[in-house]
């Protein structure tokens, strides 16, 4: 039994190390000198850490601008997804109105259709609206998604009926209930929705590739792919750029992790 | 317990802190309408509008218009009506069939590999206490990172000249490989040329599959772990008293109880595998090498590089049909074998 447990630990730890190895290698290589990076790839960490690589990366391509674009788009998308799915989720969970079942079915069906399969007419629509190469094109189509609506509906269904009744007795209408009392009650699920909305928007590639043309409108993911073709041989700077691109999502993940895992495990009730 | 996540929530609710008077006024209005016999309908309309409008405009209507556009020829716009012409062209095109084959290889590779691997990891994590959270966040890490940035790292690791993988192979005395640049079949290379080079997935495609297994496992592990934790302990205890151990316990108790989780991951995983784009694009630098071009990349190339809008739409419709059909088949065939508690 004891030896068995040690084997489990050993395998799990080895697997975890293999999983994070590419990231450790990335950070190490990012701060090597170029000859060090290209000849001695097995060495995990640099002889001396070349912190100047960071500034050199930002000089080599307008990553500052890319970041500004990405953060602007992702933050607005994230907040909008939270708002739309809170509202729609609440309506589906708590309101009685004709056509509710049908509308909810339609919402569920649209989960099956990947955005990638309908981008052609969306591109036409965006151009007709005059939004090609603007922030609107990057933001508006992503401001709601069926899965988040579904998740928020589940969260509101999980709140005991008594809360609603008590609020009703106190003369609290639907909107005030939703925005004052509801948000703290569905907090864990809201964090999950927010995290996924941010990640999805920040890591998106296909749509930004299609609807932006200017270098000024590039988001980091598009910027990084073009940086590879420009600076493919400068391995250290390439890894530095990758590190910088990955950093915000990793930070966000560790900040929201407790909540995220809690709601994934379905134990968000204690709040 | 106050935490940093609370700060995030405060920020979000702060942004939404609409003036009380506005909410109150709207509520009063809705209340007045309710008293006139409108029920909750006005409130529902108000709350559903933003979300459903966006879904309608960018998903539901485009489903129809993709089909409509697929009936027209022409480049960089809609030319003359060609009816089923685009579909016939696609089915007759070698490149289309090749990209379909690549997609099938990819799905058949990624789904079983990542499901089995993440189940094993989750099963291991489930049995330990100390460091479970830490190890879990290690495994989850690739999932939150950008596929593009991670792909850059993999391309460097698998670089034929200086990459870590070939250097290690060199120490072991093995032949260096071309990895992501290798169009020949992985079976051909493994069998020393006994199998024709064109059979099966290329080594490059196999590397893409490996990448996505690594990148996507974290999500499946967390979901499997949630599923395992939801199994009532008494059931396993009872089975143990009845003499179930090891493999028999897994086969007859744990896996059947986990079947809703497996089913969910399978359905979601297949849909996601059909949409894979970022890893293909970033690992091949948008390359259109036939052995590693999946359907989405093919649609993208036809649309973006060649400007065949109608044709790209037709292939997209075929893709949508394939996804819907597969989802329904899985539902039909597998749902009966899912045991809900």
Brief summary of the model shown:
The complex is a heterodimer of chains A (271) and B (341). With 271 residues, chain A is an all-alpha fold.
List keywords for this structure.
heterodimer, A: 271 residues, MetI-like fold, 2 domains, 74% helix, disordered C terminus, B: 341 residues, mainly alpha
Q: What is the secondary structure topology, with strand pairs?
A:
The complex is a heterodimer of chains A (271) and B (341).
Chain A: H1 2-30, H2 34-39, H3 52-60, H4 63-94, H5 100-112, H6 119-128, H7 135-139, H8 146-157, H9 161-169, H10 174-185, H11 187-202, H12 206-211, H13 220-231, H14 235-264
Chain B: H1 4-15, H2 20-38, H3 41-69, H4 85-92, H5 94-127, H6 132-144, H7 147-157, H8 164-171, H9 186-190, H10 203-229, H11 233-241, H12 246-274, H13 278-284, H14 295-305, H15 309-335
**Helix/strand class of chain B:** mainly alpha
Q: State the secondary-structure class of chain A.
A: mainly alpha
The N- to C-terminal Cα distance of chain A equals 37 Å
Strand portion of chain A = under 5%
CATH superfamily of the largest domain in chain A: MetI-like
How far apart the termini of chain B lie comes to 33 Å
The share of residues in extended strands of chain B comes to under 5%
Number of strands of chain B: 0
Low-confidence stretches of chain A: 265-271
Estimate the global geometry of chain A from the Cα principal axes.
Answer: globular
Named CATH topology of the largest domain in chain A: MetI-like fold
User: What pair of chains forms the biggest interface?
Assistant: A-B, 109 and 110 residues
CATH topology of the largest domain in chain B: MetI-like fold
Integer tally of domains of chain A:
2
Computed over alpha carbons, the radius of gyration of chain A is 23 Å
CATH class of the largest domain in chain B: Mainly Alpha
- How would you sum up the major sheet of chain B? none
Could you say what the CATH architecture of the largest domain in chain B is?
A: Orthogonal Bundle
In CATH, what is the class of the largest domain in chain A?
Answer: Mainly Alpha
């Amino acid at each position: 039994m004891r030896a068995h447990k040690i084997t489990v630990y050993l395998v799990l730890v080895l697997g975890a190390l293999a999983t994070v190895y590419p990231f450790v290698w990335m950070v190490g290589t990012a701060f090597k000198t170029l000859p060090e990076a290209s000849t001695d790839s097995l060495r995990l960490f640099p002889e001396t850490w070349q912190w100047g690589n960071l500034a050199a990366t930002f000089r080599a391509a307008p990553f500052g601008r890319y970041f500004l674009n990405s953060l602007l788009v992702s933050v607005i998308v994230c907040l909008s997804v939270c708002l739309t799915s809170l509202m729609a989720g609440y309506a589906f969970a708590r309101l009685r109105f004709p056509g509710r079942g049908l509308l909810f079915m339609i919402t569920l069906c649209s989960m099956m259709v990947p955005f990638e399969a309908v981008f052609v007419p969306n591109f036409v629509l965006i151009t007709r609206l005059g939004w090609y190469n603007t922030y609107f094109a990057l933001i508006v189509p992503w401001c709601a998604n069926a899965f988040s609506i579904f998740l928020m509906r589940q969260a509101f269904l999980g709140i005991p009926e008594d809360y609603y009744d008590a609020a009703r007795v106190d003369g609290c209408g639907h909107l005030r209930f939703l925005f004052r009392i509801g948000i703290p009650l569905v907090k864990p699920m809201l964090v999950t929705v927010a995290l996924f909305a941010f990640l999805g928007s920040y890591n998106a590639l296909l749509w930004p590739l299609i609807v932006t043309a200017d270098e000024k409108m590039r988001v980091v993911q598009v910027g990084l792919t073009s940086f590879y073709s420009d600076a493919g041989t400068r391995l250290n700077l390439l890894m530095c750029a990758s590190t910088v691109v990955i950093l915000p999502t990793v930070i966000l993940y560790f900040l929201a992790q407790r909540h995220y895992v809690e709601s994934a495990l379905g134990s968000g009730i204690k709040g | 317990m106050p935490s940093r996540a609370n700060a995030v929530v405060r920020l979000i609710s702060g942004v939404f802190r609409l003036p009380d008077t506005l909410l109150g006024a709207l509520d009063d209005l809705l209340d007045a309408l309710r008293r006139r016999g409108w029920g909750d309908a006005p409130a529902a309309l108000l709350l559903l509008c933003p979300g459903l409008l966006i879904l309608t405009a960018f998903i539901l209507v485009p489903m129809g218009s993709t089909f409509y556009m697929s009936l027209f020829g022409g480049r960089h716009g809609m030319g003359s009506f060609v009816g089923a012409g685009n579909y016939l062209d696609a089915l007759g095109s070698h490149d289309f069939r090749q990209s379909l084959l690549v997609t099938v290889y990819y799905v058949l590779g990624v789904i079983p590999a990542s499901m089995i691997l993440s189940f094993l990891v989750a099963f291991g994590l489930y049995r330990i206490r100390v460091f479970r959270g830490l190890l879990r966040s290690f495994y989850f890490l690739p999932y939150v990172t950008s596929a593009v940035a991670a792909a850059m790292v993999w391309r460097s690791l698998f670089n034929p000249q200086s990459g870590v993988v070939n250097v290690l192979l060199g120490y072991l005395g093995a032949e260096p490989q071309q990895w992501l640049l290798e169009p020949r079949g992985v079976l051909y290379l493994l069998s020393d040329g006994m199998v024709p080079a064109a059979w099966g997935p290329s080594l490059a495609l196999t590397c893409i599959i490996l990448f996505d297994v690594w990148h996507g496992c974290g999500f499946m592990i967390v979901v499997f772990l949630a599923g395992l934790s939801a199994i009532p302990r008494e059931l396993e205890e009872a089975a143990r008293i009845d003499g179930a151990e090891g493999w028999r316990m897994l086969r007859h108790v744990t896996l059947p109880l986990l079947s809703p989780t497996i089913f969910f991951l399978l359905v979601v995983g297949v849909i996601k595998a059909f949409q894979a784009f970022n890893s293909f694009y970033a690992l091949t630098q948008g390359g259109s090498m036939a052995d590693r071009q999946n359907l989405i990349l093919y649609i993208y190339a036809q649309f973006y590089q060649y400007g065949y809008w109608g044709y790209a739409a037709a292939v997209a419709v075929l893709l949508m049909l394939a996804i819907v059909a597969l989802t329904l088949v899985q539902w039909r065939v597998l749902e009966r074998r899912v045991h809900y508690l």
